[in-house]
Amino acid sequence: MTCESPPLSARRRAAGPVPKIALAQVEPVVPPSRFALGVSRLDAILGGGLAEARLHELWPAQADDAPSAAGFALLLALKAAGPRRAIVWIEQQGRQGRLYPPGLAELGIDPARILFVNAPDEKALLRAAGDVVRSPAAGAVVIAPAGPAPLLDLTASRRLTLFAERSGTTAILLRNADPHAPSAATTRWQIAAAPSRALEANAPGEPAFALDLVRQRGGAPSYGWMLEWDRDRAGFAPLSRDLAADAGGGYLAAG
Amino acid sequence: MLAEDIWRLDNPQILPARGEGDRDAQRRGGGGDPRAIRPTSIPLHRPSGGPPPRSGEDLPIVFVEKLNNAMRLTALSRAAMALGLTPNLTLADARARVPDLIALDRDHGAEARLLARIVAGCVRYTPMAAAEPPDGAILDITGCAHAFGGEARLKADLAQKLEASGITAICALGDTPEQARALARFGHKAKDLPGLPVDALEADPAVTLALRRAGLKTIGDLASRPRKMLAARFGDLAIRLGRLLGEQDRHISPERPLPPVFGLRRFAEPIGRIEDALACLEELAQEAAQILLERHQGGRRFAARFFRSDGAIARVEIGTGQPTRDPALLIRLFRERVDALSDPIDPGFGFDMIRLDVGQCEALTARQDDHLAPARHEEDLAELIDRLSVRLGARRIHRVQPENSHIPECAASACAPSQMPAWDSAPEGEPPMRPLRLFDPPQPVGAVMSEVPDGPPMRFTWRGRTYGITRWEGPERIAAEWWRRRDRGGRPRDYYRVEDEAGHRFWLFRHGLHETDGTAPDWYLHGQFA
User: How far apart are CA B93 and CA B80, in angstroms?
Assistant: First the structure.
């Protein structure tokens, strides 16, 4: 073994920088195809919808909003994957409860389409996410770490973006708090729950979300969107009919 | 040779006797005494309690089949024969004659399986053993008899073993398969070959009848006639006769298990690098793929063994969700498995042999690639599932299937990722009635305030925070599954969908009812909506 070490390390040195150069040179040649959220003004701000085959990052505004963020991530994955392709849900189990299949069906997501992957730790989560995003098999993948996920840094997000561009899989990174760190994601969103439009007898209505588009590549951020999910139409809609008129800049321009 | 869980019935008339023969072949089976055989694992058919009969000898058992729209007897036990029942009788007539008749459905599949087991057991005498459905077997014992002390002893040994396993069989020796067959099936009617009736030719019944009418009653009568006339009048009868008389030989197709697929490399000098070992494994995978391709098969389980020169053996196994023979995929899975080993493979002083075994083979026919995207995706997905299973363990990758239970935490269960269970879509025009996140077990919540004891919650505390409820719907009462419980009890749950001021939606339930003694039921948070 000792006599083999020098050539081995020499090879590593020689091989080390090559992938980095290759990574730096890979740039998307074709503009990505996009999927519309269904709210025309928001889609216009996004340049025609969210980009497929890219990484998008979401986090809940507060810990209580985590189910809303998970729901929004899954609905984005549903729209990105189209009608046929599989959705992969990679989760590191924490104290957030488990994804409930009948609840998915109630959101309009066929639970049979979802491949559940349970990662024991953050490292395994990241490797599994790399495998899924690199493969063209899945239409969309939601990556949900349990903790602050320090390994999911700028480099990791850049890698996921490059994999996604090559394979055509849309990756959605569902963090559980604002990371306060740079990321190569194409869009970054902060999600909160919003009061729903009440039904008869003051019953809670369709799922409602308050969104802040914190950052998008090549575009301006946009705050204060209030959307609700219309399962029967399989699209988002402005939450309030009154606010639909000025939904362009959000109901609160300042966010 | 055969396990004891077989009992058999004898029905001398059902399957009309047929001939057989072969020079060194020895035929065993139901010549003049064909049988219908069934495993005992069908106690549902037995009329009443008591131990299952070990043998059908003493009971009037008949097997029935639906023929021409009527249930007719097609196989009978000896006891049933003795009572005067005959094959082809309708079941209704048979019951009228013998009220305590035991009628069972005939199971040709079970008979075929038993025959296959018998043939497999006969491989101890010769590698050339073949089944002759429905009820016979042919053994080509050319060159095998001396190992058992001669043909007669081999035959006696076989007969004794079959008898011991409860199989009634008639064994005969012949020069050709047809000769042995004829002697086994019709040998009780004549002493020698020329004395056999013409039925032994097993020709068309009309032909047999015509021969009889012409006065040709035995094989000997027929053999003395010119063959050309027989061929002109009765077609293939001349060939049948030639085979029966041992003038022509027919080959049998023996049942032989395919040898296992494996590849092996020995090294004059042990190799010390795991990379080189994996490169060698890749060559073995390519060889195995070639063998599998020729067989139109793919492997589901692969095991690589690295034999170290000091005697230690490192074993690495992979499994795939679908049969495969793609060497590139295999080697990638093996590399991932090796990388993921908690205890890395130590080459020590080097490996001097590497062996790859394909443990489980399944049919995999070559397929032309088309340009339809969905098919491609499915294949990619199977590959992705395999890779994740190798990396994380198969239990961590699953899909979900619906379960038939009202209890929310039991309404879904994990299933294999290769399955595609069917889920009902939610009814239109309603908001989600089930949460996106479910807590299992439900989380207790405190300080629940209601306007009236049985009313909806107005405020609750969970994880140290208080939530004021502005919207609610309920209750949806889900009763405990009392029919599964020994005490027939269990408290009902009253579920409420509630929303707080900020828009967080929760699924709360009250466990039980308010009792007269003043104890209040507990509240739990079972899930959160998107």
Answer: 13
A108–B530 C-beta distance less than 8 A: no
pLDDT in tens, chain B (530 residues): 222 222 333 332 233 223 333 333 333 333 332 333 332 222 222 333 333 444 555 778 888 888 888 888 888 887 888 888 888 889 999 999 888 888 888 888 888 888 888 888 888 888 888 888 778 888 888 888 888 888 888 888 888 888 888 777 888 888 888 888 888 888 777 778 888 888 888 888 888 898 889 888 888 888 888 888 888 888 888 888 888 888 887 777 777 767 788 888 999 999 988 889 999 999 999 999 999 988 888 888 899 999 988 888 888 988 887 888 888 888 888 988 888 787 788 888 889 999 999 988 888 877 665 555 555 666 788 889 988 988 888 889 999 999 988 899 999 999 998 888 999 888 888 889 999 999 988 999 987 888 887 888 999 999 899 999 999 998 899 988 888 877 777 888 999 999 999 999 999 999 888 777 777 888 999 999 98
CA angle B299, B304, B310 (to 5 degrees): 165
Mark yes or no for CB contact A204/B433 under 8 Å: no
Q: Are strands B522-528 and B505-511 parallel, antiparallel or unpaired?
A: antiparallel
* A113 to chain B, closest Cα gap in Å: 8
A152/chain B closest Cα distance in angstroms: 19
In one-letter notation, the amino acid at residue B469 is I
- CATH superfamily ID and name for B261-390: DNA polymerase, Y-family, little finger domain (3.30.1490.100)
0.95 surpassed by pTM:
no
Report the number of distinct structural domains present in chain A.
Answer: 1
Across the interface, whether the CB atoms of A202 and B471 are under 8 A apart is answered yes
Determine the distance from the C-alpha atom of residue B208 to the mean position of all C-alpha atoms in its chain, rounded to a whole number. 41
Domain that holds residue A52: 26-244
A134 → chain B, closest CA residue: B384
* A70-109 residues touching B, CB cutoff 8 A: 70-72, 74-75, 84-86, 96-108
Q: Kindly list the domain boundaries of chain B, sorted by start residue.
A: 1-34+108-257, 43-106, 261-390, 437-528
B43-106 CATH: 3.40.1170.60
Residues of chain B in contact with residue A132, where contact means CB-CB under 8 angstroms, are 384, 388
Residue A154 lies in a domain: yes
| Buried/exposed A219-235: b ≥16 CB within 10 Å, e otherwise | eeebbbbbbbbebeeeb
A84 part of a folded domain: yes
Partner-chain contact B384 A192, CB within 8 Å? no
CATH code: domain of residue A206:
3.40.50.300
Residue A66 lies in a domain: yes
Inside any domain, residue A5: no
Beta-strand runs (E) in B343-492: 351-363, 397-402, 412-415, 437-450, 457-462, 465-478
Contacts of B503 in chain A (CB under 8 A): 68, 192-196, 208, 210
